[in-house]
Design brief:
single chain; about 150 residues; alpha+beta; Glutaredoxin; 4-stranded mixed β-sheet; about 15% strand; globular; Thioredoxin-like_sf
Length: about 150
Amino acid sequence: MPFLQEQDAAFVRTRLAQDLRDDVTLEFFAPATGGLVLPGQDGQTAEYARQILAEVAALSPKIRLNVHSTIAEPDAAKAFGIARTPGTAVIGAHDFGVRFYGMPAGYEFATLLELIITASQGTTAIAPQTREMLAQLQRDIHLQVFVTPT
């Protein structure tokens, strides 16, 4: 059973067709990609997340989904900087370092959609004052944004 209702899928398909510029690759990481799941790993949440990403990828020829297991492919997880699962590297023409952790359902689905579009366009809607402030940073920083509906 699909996660996206047909009218929602139609909306997303139209939005992607209008707003995607460059191709986007979603590098998705789960604890395992089939078979045995280790205790303490939330395989069910990862599988739901994979299904949602697959549905989104099917809505545009500009989106490619690659599925990985952190257990079977620890070097790939390290290469993409994936620290936990489910985790997705959202990559446009360049890898801007954007990572999405968790299941992109509910309010988080809109966040995922905007990340995909932003990565495709290679730019953000950051205010000029914020860009100026960021340009003054003396070293790289690790920024995390946590989204929750509560």
